[in-house]
Amino acid sequence: MLIVFQSKAASDVLMFSAHALTIMEVIGRSYGDTLPERGIITYEQLPDAIQAIEQAIDTDKAAGEDSAEEDEDVKVHPIAEPVSFRQRAWPLLSMLRAARDKEANVMWEPAPQW
User: Fold this and answer.
1) 45 secondary structure, DSSP code
2) What does the CA dihedral 31, 35, 37, 42 come to, rounded to 10 degrees?
């Protein structure tokens, strides 16, 4: 399912629910196998959520640098490279930062059908 994150502080962020679930687990929200259809990250929860995502990105970045050093001779086409956690989380992290700066909440719900 496609999820849309919304806040008065930033443009909408679209994400597959499986990827959003991973980010929610990083910020300390365990929902099991499925993300609830609707939810909110309140302004008060934003600093902890931002810090948790930043720590996970730093960990992901360090792991990526280690593997890049090992495979210097192997050239992989960019489209064949997997998408890292930091690449998936960056748009939502930017939204969370903007919401923190403007003292706004971040909500999610299913994306509308086009």
Assistant:
1) G
2) 70
Predicted TM-score of the model (pTM):
0.84
Provide the strand spans (E) within 17-53. 39-41
What is the phi-psi region of residue 32: left when phi exceeds 0, alpha when psi lies from -120 to 50, beta otherwise? left
d(C-alpha 46, C-alpha 63), whole Å: 26
Q: Which pLDDT tens digit goes with each residue over 82-96? A: 888 999 999 999 999
Largest CA distance in the chain: 48
Give CA separation, 106 vs 44, 46, 78, 90, in Å.
11, 9, 32, 15
